[in-house]
């Protein structure tokens, strides 16, 4: 299952996400999304893990504090297609 993690601190790293979520199951991948132009965090990321661990993690981590920010955590939804100009 792919998990969306929002409201991340600018200093949060992939390793920070993996460490936080690995308490609830095996993490396949953890990635903080960065701005293409600046390389700076965009304040959200995605964690991929097994379904059972993901459900536990979503319940446990949503609304908790990481590096001074209250996290918004839920199951990732497919990205809607946007027209390209």
Automatic annotation (TrEMBL):
Domain RRM: 1-78
Keyword RNA-binding: yes
GO molecular function: RNA binding
SMART domains noted in UniProt: RRM
Entry keyword Metal-binding: no
Domain of life: Bacteria
Key words of the record: RNA-binding
Protein name per Swiss-Prot or TrEMBL: RNP-1 like RNA-binding protein
Species annotation: Desulfomicrobium baculatum (strain DSM 4028 / VKM B-1378 / X)
